[in-house]
Amino acid sequence: MACLPLRHLKFVFIIQIRKSIRVLDAWEWAQESGEIEYDVVTCLNLLDRCDTPRSLLREIHAKLTPSGTLVVALVLPFNPYVETGTADNLPSEELGIAGSTLEEQVNCLATHVFPSLGYTLTRWSRLPYLCEGDLDQAFYWLSDVVLVFRKTGLYDETDEEEEFSDALENIKVEL
Known about the structure:
Blueprint: E1 12-17, E2 20-25, H1 29-32, E3 38-44, H2 53-63, E4 64-76, H3 102-113, E5 119-132, E6 139-151, H4 157-174
Parallel strand pairs: 3-4
Antiparallel strand pairs: 1-2, 4-6, 5-6
């Protein structure tokens, strides 16, 4: 059996079904899993590397059971870096996190970002996150937050448009 180091894999979803594990591509998982709904979906340190994080969260919402749980891990302060698909390494879709400190960003995630996508925060915790370094430093010590959300209501795109319309109007006025 050949082993491939994890750093060479694209984003994957690992789904446990009846004590077996299936690995699905992050961009095709919703279609590949068919009509299956999940009680729990984990999205661990993925959203800051995802080109379309809001779209991914909408897909997850659609695949969760009505009382489903979403577990998200994010390095905060949030600094997205998309490794493939964009020339400037920035996502083509903003997650919408405001604030500069960890606390401000957790508050924004809990009160604006995830509720606008049909999720309610039930628990969260801060953890140390060690990541591979570079030429200047062997490794970096970052702050990771793990957030547990419960699926609430149906996501409605018009809710999101209304929520952000005031912000968009303010930007147009300032320009």
